[in-house]
Amino acid sequence: MVHSGYWGCGAFGGNRELMPTLQAAAAALAGVRLLVLHTGAAGGDTPARNGLRILDEVAGSEGLPVGELVAALAARRFPWGFSNGT
What are phi and psi of 35, to 5 degrees? Predict the structure, then answer.
């Protein structure tokens, strides 16, 4: 089990859809059975759910080689935000 969340999405303005997408892909590659995403305030799970949906769309049930997955996600041009000052 791994606990994670929107690490890098506050102080560094990271994308709240992309981060869980990458974390879920990394967890799957590492053989992690359970990934717990801590999303904070009410409604904070929406970007994470979108990210997991995107991973399913991009990788499908069969998965993709890592290079192809990264290229497919990069092609979506996720916007990067701004620091929230934390």
Answer: -110, 120
| Token representation of residue 74 | 């990069």
Spatial distance between the Cα atoms of 23 and 3, rounded to a whole number of angstroms: 10
Q: Taking the model in full, what pTM does it have? A: 0.85
One-letter amino acid for residue 47 of the chain: P
The proportion of the chain whose per-residue pLDDT surpasses 90, expressed as a percent, equals 66
- Look at the block and give the residue holding tokens 């995107």: 54
The DSSP line for 23-85 is: HHHHHHHHT-S-EEEE--STTTHHHHHHHHHHHHHHHTTT---HHHHHHHHHHT-PPP-----
Locate tokens 């974390």: which residue?
A: 23
* Residue 10 clears pLDDT 80, i.e. is over it: no
